[in-house]
């Protein structure tokens, strides 16, 4: 059965205003369950599992969120096993793995996964694979961003660009500043305009794709046209 988007919501509700009383624009947007093409997903995961022996540079994350990540090399299969089984002795994250470094079979499978509307910006994709509890500390990006959740859940906290006159929330006191909180599940997409600070935590072993590109804001208008097969 072909279905349109089952749910989408603008995350701002007008309470984020600048000092001059203007509403922050453009605003973050979440679209639920757009990437639920089961066949493409199964194929893509199959290709990923087939690359089990490929070595990747992952990070071992410190539990205190203050010390440095510890980089180390591991087999992709070992990482997948830890992330997809939701059991890992310590938080390990393959962050921001750029498409140019992916083995060609993974690149080809991704074309089907992201569909026609994103195929032209696939060269800007990055893959994120992490165990439960991995995180990305608060930062903002210089480009608009699409974050697509492929597997597991992530919690994203988001602060508007006006926070402390563009400086974003101070580290350690983020929760004291007005923010949005969204939980992304498998198949969900988050559009995050540039300059909105954000912090991400994986609530499960998680796999995501993201695109930093000036055109991603325009592309989200096309998603209602994508029909997807329900499981
Ligand atoms: O998923 C993550 O851990 C971080 C994603 C992120 O910060 C981004 O896409 O800009």
* N-to-C span: 9 Å
Structural class: alpha+beta
Which topology does CATH recognise?
Answer: Jelly Rolls
Rg measurement, Å: 18 Å
Bin the strand percentage.
25-35%
Anisotropy-based shape: globular
List the uncertain runs.
Answer: 1-7, 224-231
Characterise the protein shown here:
With 231 residues, the chain is of the alpha+beta class. It has a single domain, classed as Sandwich (Jelly Rolls), CATH 2.60.120.650. 18% of the residues lie in helices and 33% in strands. The strands form 3 sheets. Strands 2-3-12-9-14-7-6-4-5 form a 9-stranded antiparallel β-sheet, covered by helices on one side. Helix 1 runs antiparallel to helix 3. The relative contact order is 0.22. The chain binds 2-oxoglutaric acid. 2-oxoglutaric acid (AKG) binds at residues 128, 136, 141, 145, 147, 154, 198, 200, 208, 210.
Please outline the helices and strands.
Blueprint: E1 2-3, E2 7-10, E3 29-32, H1 38-50, E4 55-60, E5 70-75, H2 76-84, E6 92-98, H3 104-114, H4 116-119, E7 125-130, E8 135-139, E9 145-151, E10 154-159, E11 180-184, E12 189-192, E13 197-202, E14 206-212, H5 216-219, E15 228-229
Antiparallel strand pairs: 1-15, 2-3, 3-12, 4-5, 4-6, 6-7, 7-14, 8-13, 9-12, 9-14, 10-11, 10-13
The structure holds 2-oxoglutaric acid.
Quick rundown:
This protein has 231 residues and is α+β, with helices and mostly antiparallel strands.
Features:
single chain; 231 residues; alpha+beta; Jelly Rolls; nine-stranded antiparallel β-sheet; four-stranded antiparallel β-sheet; disordered C terminus; binds 2-oxoglutaric acid
């Amino acid at each position: 059965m072909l279905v349109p988007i089952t749910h989408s919501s603008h995350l701002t509700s007008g309470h984020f205003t600048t000092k001059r009383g203007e509403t922050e624009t453009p605003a973050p947007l979440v679209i639920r369950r757009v990437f639920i093409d089961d066949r493409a997903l199964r194929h893509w995961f199959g290709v990923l599992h087939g690359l089990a022996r490929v070595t990747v540079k992952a990070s071992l994350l410190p539990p205190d969120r203050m010390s440095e990540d510890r980089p180390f090399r591991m087999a992709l299969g070992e990482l997948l096993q830890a992330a997809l089984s939701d059991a890992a002795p310590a938080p390990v994250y393959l962050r921001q793995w750029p498409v140019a470094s992916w083995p060609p079979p993974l690149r080809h499978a991704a074309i089907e996964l992201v569909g026609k509307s994103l195929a032209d910006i696939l060269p800007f994709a990055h893959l994120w694979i992490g165990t439960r509890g991995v995180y990305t500390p608060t930062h903002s990006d210089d480009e608009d961003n699409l974050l697509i959740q492929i597997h597991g859940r992530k919690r994203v906290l988001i602060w508007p660009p006006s926070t402390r006159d563009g400086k974003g929330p101070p580290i350690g006191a983020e929760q004291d500043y007005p923010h949005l909180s969204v939980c992304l599940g498998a198949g969900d997409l988050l559009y995050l305009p540039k300059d909105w600070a954000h912090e991400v935590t994986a609530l499960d072993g998680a796999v995501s794709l993201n695109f930093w590109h000036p055109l991603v804001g325009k592309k989200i208008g096309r998603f209602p046209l994508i029909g997807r097969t329900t499981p």
